[in-house]
Amino acid sequence: MKNSKNIPNHVAIIMDGNGTWSKIKKLQRKDGHKKGVETAKKIISYSLEKKIKNVTLFALSNENLTRSKLELKNLFDIFFYSFTNEKNFLTENKIKINFIGDIEKLPKKLKNNILILESETEKNKKLNLFIALNYGGKQDIRQAVQNSINKNQKKNNFENFLYSKNLPEVDLLIRTGGFKRLSNFILWQISYAELYFTDILWPNFNKKSYFKAIEWYQGIDRKFGKS
Fold it and tell me: For 140-149, how does the pLDDT look when each residue is reduced to its tens digit (9 = 90+)?
């Protein structure tokens, strides 16, 4: 990539296409999810290479909880073991990890693993990695407003109750898999995000694909509503 300037501060990614990839390969859906986790790790490494400071990955939405019990079990197992196995990767690369969403509804062992990871990486400062897990943008705003009311807070302080309160504004939102929609993803922070859609399935999204998206972003004259 020739242009090293105007690197996005915050890249958010809707990682879509694992199921389609596994179907094309005549594999089980869990194989697509496993491959998707491998891709996520590579994209995080590429983000470090480009000195991007914040990355948010949409791993599981509120709506995804309506999937079959078997697929959810496979997903939770994949999350658990990947989070466990990547502790060294996070530490060595000084990555701070935070999870946003209603983790109380997740399996106990997964929730405990999440809390441990957040605690063990809280002092890392090279990259902030946010994982949206059991998350929905509308649900996030709704629960924040309700909690602020319950605690007699002023309405303009409701942002402090968001699951996503620590997220900076998104500069570049990438969605893989061919669909052109936001799917209820961190709605509060994407008001001025540049939206990049690609037909590439998430397991096939590689370094060249990622850098192409960043290069596209770098060519935009962002005016934020100003002339």
Answer: 999 998 888 8
Using alpha carbons only, how large is the chain's radius of gyration in Å?
17
**b/e for 172-194, b at 16 or more Cβ within 10 A?**
bbbbbbeeeebebbbebbbeebb
Residues 152-185 pLDDT 10s: 766 567 889 999 999 999 999 999 999 999 999 9
Q: Residue 95 in 3-state DSSP?
A: strand
Instruction: List the chain domain ranges.
Output: 1-12+56-116+129-151+162-218
Task: Find out whether 178 and 199 touch, Cβ atoms under 8 Å.
Answer: yes
Q: In which residue are the tokens 């990547």 written? A: 86
* Residue 227 DSSP SS3: coil
Where does 1-12+56-116+129-151+162-218 sit in CATH, by number?
3.40.1180.10
Residues marked active site are found at 16, 64
